[in-house]
Amino acid sequence: MQINKEKIKKILLIRPEMIGDYVIITPAITALKNAFPNAKIAIFIKEMTKSLVETNPDIDEIILDPNQIKKGSFDLAIDFYGDPKYARLIYLCRIPYRIGDCSRILNCLFYNVRVFINWRDFTKHYLEHYLELLRPLGIEVKDPKINIRPAKSAEESVKKLLPSGKYIGLHIGTGGSNRSWTSKNFAKTAELIMEKLGLQVVLLGGKKEEAKAKEIMNLSNPKPINLVNKISLPELAAVLSKLAVYVGSDTGPFHLAAGLGIPIVALMPTKFVKPTQWGPWNTRNIVLRPNSPCDKACNPRSCKDSTCLIKISPDEVLSAIQSLMAGGGNNTLEESKKDWIKKSLNILLIGKDLKNLEKASSLLFNDDYRACSIKNASLRKLLSIFVKEDINILHSLDSGPNFKLRLACLLSSIKLLLPVLFIKTTQAFNQSSEIIDIYLKTLCRKFH
After folding, report:
1. Segment 274-283, tens digit of pLDDT
2. Which helix (H) or strand (E) holds 266?
3. Does the global pTM surpass 0.85?
4. What's the CA gap between 63 and 43, in Å, rounded?
């Protein structure tokens, strides 16, 4: 459906979810306000994020009750959530233009302006995926920035909690799609920071992390400042804005800190979460994502295995903090994306020509890409390697038949969230960049 932009006077955004989900759609909100400066923008959210949204000057109205949507007489709705319940709601409210992601077939019934978003494209950040929903409006954002501002009143109250000085924030929780570091490691890291850097440490988290915070406090000497479940969301934003470095997994506060421009040490131990999709956007960062082979298909919500967690040490975190404080880490988005690709791609090279196989493997390994190689393997063995090494690219260097390899990639979707991509080449390579270019171009064709 062609959208008549002149008729857009009232815009509704749907994003009734967690803190981080709101934070990473703020570039889209800013882009909409710039494209429709005279339009009124309302957002449907949950109560928990209201105090954060209130500081956004691009938002004119906050809606908490879905029953209020019909009274709004909106001209355009953009569904950033994708739940059939809300897709149906904007349909029943008879909003003339309804933009949404049609990768969920049921939702297509309720949208009349459909955008297909390939969420399996792990080369794109989720923030970039959400911007795709603006395509039907002719909006293209070249340099998206997260738009977050701490409330002035919260900044004043935080001054009493944290007097002037440098602080390191340790967020001890996780949103569920990742694994949280152990209490012992957080306590040791806090001690190292205070003893070796002479800086105070602030523990951050919500109600779920209260017991863990007590463990950390008992294990630590000297003691950090415990603000776990003791501050409001606006105060959290104000605390984050005062940090010299933030350390934690990809949670809402993680993306909030990134939006405030705070340097971040990102703890991403699991195979499930890819830095390319959830890395700290547009702020200096160091991502710690160990290459920790695990025989199990990754499910952070239920897994009790600590294989991936013990691969990140307190000394490594301290070193990353020191590097960021000295101006190191990924300094630009371009640098970040190159680094995140290296920590998200897991490559299996296969070929009978050992010389060619070893050369390609060495080129990748020497440039810090994660690659392993085999001469041959059974179907069962291939699937086992896929799971253990979290393989997302199978690269054949042979010219012969490849039915077994293609079948293995097809079957990988049973165990892996992202099915393995099969790539076949026969030429010799002289640089890792030549190989990576082929991977990225193939991924681009597959996902687009």
Report:
1. 999 999 999 9
2. strand 264-267
3. yes
4. 6
